[in-house]
Specification:
The chain is 70% helix and 0% strand. It is mainly α. Helix 3 runs antiparallel to helix 4, helix 3 (63-86) packs antiparallel against helix 7 (147-171) and helix 4 runs parallel beside helix 7.
Length: 200
Amino acid sequence: MLMPPNQYDFITNPQKLPKKGLLPGIGNSKKQRILMVGVGGILLVIILITVFSFIFGGSGGNTDDLVKAAKQQSELIRISDIALTKARGSDALNLAITTKMTLMAEQQPFLKMIKNQGYSLNAKELAASKNAETDKILTAADQNNQFDVVFLKTLQSGIANYQKTLKKALNTTSNKKARQSISEAYSQAKILFPPATDQL
């Protein structure tokens, strides 16, 4: 004889509800778990690629060296501008013109490489590279009728330091296009002021 269902059966004999998956619409079958693991793995790989691209992407080089080179370019251009109004001889004047035109042409590619690495170098930061001590030295030289001699020595010293920065940047750059730009800049710097020994 069948017993009538007890109205309290839902309390004394609760029915087991099916387990729900971690995500809506996804159960706990083996196939579904494998699918979830696969999707999670793909997402992880995408995140890692994005992070590594941000850190090592762009020109594939050392951002600090590229920033330093761009600032050196600005300072050498500024010093050359001073000589354009104060130089007396053709040697100083010609070097000032050549240096300014060469570095102005090189600076935009460098700023682009720096931007590709996630760093924006603005005009204010470039202007901050101004060396006030250099101005004092050149002003004193002008007053003593020694401007050309002091200017040539100062500019050549600056170009030599610029060459060292380019060499270091080249050694830490893996991107082919960036290496070509840096190498070309280094070659031009050697024409402006040939180093004692070829560093490449």
